[in-house]
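Entry for the shared binder. Reason: the reviewer on the internal report wants the predicted structure included alongside the sequence.
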Amino acid sequence: MQTWGADIAVEMGDAYIGVEHAFLAMIRSRETVPARALASLADLDAVEAAVLEAKNAPAAPGEAAVLLPEGQELDGPLERAIIDALPEGATFGFNHDGEDRRWMVVLGPGGSHDPGVTREVLDTALASLGRPAR
């Protein structure tokens, strides 16, 4: 079994294997069926450049993201409290940018996201721990 993208992740110095690594491995193996199919639709060199540009772009919160209150870290208790506060069928994503701003997004079933739901989940989680919400 081939672990798609492992060699790409190592080459890039990443400590994880992501979809981007697997996709780059696929389009770099030009003889594969997926690469040949994609080549009929787009210039694979341009696709690779776009993937690398997106991967290397600084993270930024989207419209549905909610910033954590200043000084709050996503520690174990807060993560557990967020999980407990999630609506059924939802999950959450968490990230930060180079300026140490941390944000989260609640993803509902089907990938829906609503900043109001995210704010409610975060406020509920923080309140359950006795931490200030804002």
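Summary line for the report: Residues 6-56 form one domain.
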